[in-house]
Description:
The chain is α+β, with helices and mostly antiparallel strands. It has four domains: 13-141, no CATH class; 170-259, no CATH class; 267-365, no CATH class; 368-454. The chain is built from 15 helices and 15 strands. It has helices spanning 35-43, 65-84, 92-95, 101-111, 115-128, 131-141, 150-166, 170-183, 203-212, 246-259, 261-265, 334-339, 341-344, 353-411, 420-444; strands at 13-16, 19-21, 25-28, 55-58, 187-190, 195-200, 222-226, 239-240, 269-271, 280-294, 300-313, 318-320, 329-331, 447-449, 453-454. α2 packs antiparallel against α4. The longest helix is centred in the last third of the chain and has 59 residues, at 353-411. Residues 1-17 have low confidence and may be disordered.
Amino acid sequence: MGCYSHLSPGLFSIHDCDALKTDRTIVNYDLPWNPNRLEQRFGRIHRIGQREVCHLWNLIAKDTREGDVYVRLLEKLEVEREALGGKVYDVLGRLFDQTALRKLLMEAIQYGDNPATKARLDKVVEGVVNRDHLRKVLAERALVHDSMNTSRIQAIREDMERAQARRLQPHFIQAFFLDAFTRLGGKVYRREEGRWEVKHVPGVLRERDRHIGLGAPVLKRYERICFEKDKVDQHPRAELVCPGSPLLSATIDLTLERHGALLKRGAVLVDESDLHEVPRLLFYLEHAVQGGRRARTGESQTISKRMHFVEVGADGRYQDAGAAPYLDYRPATAEERASLSAELDADWLKRSWDDEVTGYAVAHVVPGHVAQVRAQRLEHTDKIEREVKARLTKEISYWDRRAQDLKEKERAGKRTRLPAQVAQERADDLAARLQSRLRELQQERHIIPAPPRVT
């Protein structure tokens, strides 16, 4: 069937000899036997940036054997589309990986009068568009999930609770910043609820920011600052002080320079929930896992970073202290410190604990962190690789065939709108892109643990 334009000027533009299309409507008047073609045709209008509702019309010859099979297929797909949120047409080609639609339609044409054959074909279509089968194909293709079962939701909720416990809460940032900023010579005054005015930022902080800052510079004063996002857009607008903000980064860096040695000296804390009288040491560890790809600076890219708390007693036995144990402890009073003077002078506290704790972390903390990151990372990378191969290989094959067809026409002296060389260059560019992407994904599979650090 040849290509032609619709009689209404400008209504249809033709991109396929078996379909008519506008910028948001497609009419398939000769349905392809390969369901991938339906997906490809619709993709031409249902693309990124499309703001209008797109419509696809499939014209099927009524009361024909192959038409009955196609109608049954499309009816089933529509039912499942409503149940699964409109994603089924994205995976039409994957549904028929075991049974080709062409084969089913040929059987319908040849033997469709036989009731047994007709019943069997209906059963095959029913099985192909089975909801469980569809969910499996969608899950294999999806890089992110729109729906999850109860166990998956529970696991995510637990992960979020752990992350929340480990997260640096705004009130902790507020307590630290207001104290440290004042100690460094800054002047800050409380104004509205949860908001402060900074009338003077010390020159040492602005100078420190000039050395370490990468973003906006630290100003001499701030009309308002806040520590919670919902306080930012009130009038006047406030600067959010949070991890990564220039004012907080400069304050932390200067505080660590002046008082960082205190972290190694430690502090005496009291755990009121522990009724025993046996003292123990609490260590704060930092550990990172790096990927094979390099950051712009040339350094290995950190893909996961965690803090870990470990406790150890005089007997040398270690235990996981939990996500944030210090939240339940309080500073010892002067009287308590006096009564603990003998304990604080014990020989076991004078050992070189940093090396021992690092060794414990290498043996017990790091492997679990790496294993968890590797499992998540590799599964995601494998899925991306499958999709990249499938999509780019399909495009490369298309442009290779197109280039060969155009070459034949050019040799026959026919004029073509697209030169064969251009089509071949597109195929070659896609092939190079595929190889480059596969190399990047291979690099992402290299997961390297960084040495743990006792902070």
